[in-house]
């Protein structure tokens, strides 16, 4: 290129406000860092209250305005309201839900954050007795009806209450709900887990079982950060003795004894759940077959099965 052409190009480039444009762009960019995943009660907007029941006190956390319709949540094994539901209800898209409902998070006895080890002579409630504790919660807060939102063991407990008190349950959203009694394999694994939790604490075997129970197989292929958060939570935050008692109670559960009535004229007298039920599981969940069995025992006119 001729020297005059180079000079002309340099002059033209010199007139471009490239430097100032770069400065403006950099000044206008605000770096955003993803917040660290955690399962901390400090991040919760819920207010905790102690509710007295016939089988001891339980902790219930209330989130939202109490003059709104009620949602009652119940957690799964190894979890509590913080580790099971806090992130869901704090998610930005759930704000509309909290604006229209008040959520009452129920913790099974001894499963709340920072729980003291239950006394040696304490007899842990059966799953039917855990369901019965819900009546005390309703009385304590002056609730007449609620929508139930339960996961795993909590879903089974809510279903038990709904079978006995159908007029107090508007609808149920149940995740990984098991309607049958424990099989021999589950019974054996859980009895071994409970023994290890009592004698050795959170062993690697118990940890692996809990991770499988909540995430299914091949957890290393899932969201790495989330998996690590729950591993750390199970190792550091769970009271092993209290969890062993909860596991023992759940593994001794009875069958829900519900049955789908195929004759439309007899559905009102059927022994299944009467309220609308959404029965949810994950495509990688180890409980898919259990939810299919549960779905086959529900009234198809007021229930839906969803695999996500």
TrEMBL record:
It holds the Pfam family Ndr. SUPFAM superfamilies: alpha/beta-Hydrolases. InterPro entries: AB_hydrolase_fold, NDRG. Belongs to the NDRG family. PANTHER family: N-MYC DOWNSTREAM REGULATED (PTHR11034). This is NDRG3.
